[in-house]
Write a structure and sequence with these properties.
With 264 residues, the protein is α+β, with helices and mostly antiparallel strands. The chain has one domain. Helix content is 22%, strand content 25%. The protein is built from six helices and eleven strands. The chain has a nine-stranded mixed sheet, with no helix packed on it. It has a two-stranded antiparallel ribbon with strand order 10-11. Strand 7 and strand 8 form a beta hairpin. The chain is globular, with a radius of gyration of 22 Å.
């Protein structure tokens, strides 16, 4: 009977052996990280740095010229997307429903084209993209595939897998819940939309991305947008409080701040 604890301990050690064997040595782990790009710091969508009133300097300059800056700055809203009849109908419905909606963040794909600062955390197993509105993307780069259909359902950020082609991160995202259901300014794409991104740091202060979206429900063909992120100065940490009690609307050209409403 006294041998029982010893046997149990031995079995526990044996069961843990495969797990321990898979843990890379510190030197190997260091090599894995050294082989990856480093995208540290904080990043903002180019030309989308905002004033305290919620407008970017580029938007204000365009407004002074009588221009609509949205197509150049908020590219993923979809002004220049190849919408089909269903997509145009959803666009019209979005415009009517824009006022008074609250959001807990931007969701995907809009978090990649919003005013909130981003962080890119690159590890051998995954890349995480985080913004100040608590949006988090997990892009798995460990060689896995998307989950099988019976284990996959639409979410605000979808399911993303990726791989590296040199210093370019190639991302494949599916199963995104209609973005406009979550954030009022997002494109009203369907849950069948397929997103492919190529993200690369081209200089110490600049990251460029190309996103191509296909959607058999709302688009007549592929929709490609090119995004640029520039290094944001003056940040020493991420503060996840910026979007609480948000009252931001969108009038088709600019963000608008709505009056507080009694929600009792």
């Amino acid at each position: 009977m006294r041998a029982a604890p010893f046997v149990a301990a031995a079995l526990l050690a044996l069961s843990a052996a495969p797990i321990l064997a898979k843990t890379p040595a510190p030197a190997d782990r260091a090599k894995q990280f050294a082989s990856l790009p480093y995208w540290g710091g904080f990043w903002l969508t180019e030309n989308d740095e905002t004033t305290i009133g919620g407008l970017s300097e580029a938007a204000l300059a365009a407004r002074d010229k009588g221009e609509n800056p949205t197509a150049q700055i908020m590219k993923l809203i979809g002004i220049n997307a190849p919408w089909n009849a269903e997509g145009k109908a959803r666009q019209a419905a979005r415009a009517k429903a824009s006022g008074g909606r609250k959001a807990d963040g931007w969701g995907y794909p809009m978090m990649m084209n919003g005013a909130a600062p981003l962080q890119f955390l690159v590890t051998p197993e995954e890349v995480l993209i985080i913004n100040a509105y608590r949006d988090v993307r997990h892009i798995y780069t460990d060689g896995r595939e998307h989950p099988p259909e019976d284990d996959l359902w639409p979410t605000v950020w979808g399911d993303s897998i990726g791989h590296w082609e040199g210093d370019t991160l190639v991302v494949d995202t599916i199963s995104v819940k209609n973005p406009n259901d979550y954030f009022h300014g997002a494109p009203p794409l369907s849950e069948q939309a397929h997103y492919v991104e190529r993200i690369r740091m081209v200089s110490p202060d600049r990251i460029e991305a190309e996103m191509t979206i296909t959607d058999p429900v709302t688009l007549t063909g592929p929709w490609t947008s090119r995004l640029v992120f520039t290094r944001a100065e003056g940040f020493d940490r991420m503060i996840h409080m910026d979007y609480d009690n948000d009252r931001t609307g969108f009038d088709g050209q600019f963000n608008t701040i709505e009056q507080a409403k009694d929600e009792k």
